[in-house]
Amino acid sequence: MSARRTAASGSWSGNGRGATARRVVPVDNQRLDVEGLATIDRNGGRYLLAPSPTDNAYAVFRLPEAEYVGRFAAAAGSFDASSVTDGILAAAGDFSPAYPDGILPAQDGDNAPSAQNYRLERWDVIAAALTL
């Protein structure tokens, strides 16, 4: 699959069976770098998470309307902050006492002088911060 940045850039939804795709998140900034989208279902809602490696943050949209609900960043704690993220995954569920309501593994592409690594974020903390 290839993509071009045009006036119709953004995140698109399609079923892969020949149906017409629709743009769910338009992009009006030609410099936006969105990679590795993920979805998560929580409390009857579905959310699209879009990492932005250029500003080390994640945008969250409520589906199916693709309503922007906010953004967050994985801040430094015991480890460095997540940065230059090219991929994420999001999964709801009880993954342990440390991740009781879901987990967000995020690739941390800049971990100099070491190699890249992955950050694990608590979905309940993210959801509470965005009042989801």
From TrEMBL:
Gene3D superfamilies associated with the record: TolB, C-terminal domain
Q: Which segments constitute the BPP domain? A: 1-130
The annotated region (Disordered) lies at: 1-22
> Which InterPro entries does the UniProt record give?
6-blade_b-propeller_TolB-like, B-propeller_Phytase
What Pfam families does this protein's entry cite? Answer: Phytase
Q: Give GO MF terms, alphabetically.
A: inositol hexakisphosphate 3-phosphatase activity
Q: Which organism is the protein's source?
A: Sphingopyxis flava
**Protein name stated in the entry:** Phytase
Task: List where this protein forms a coiled coil.
Answer: none
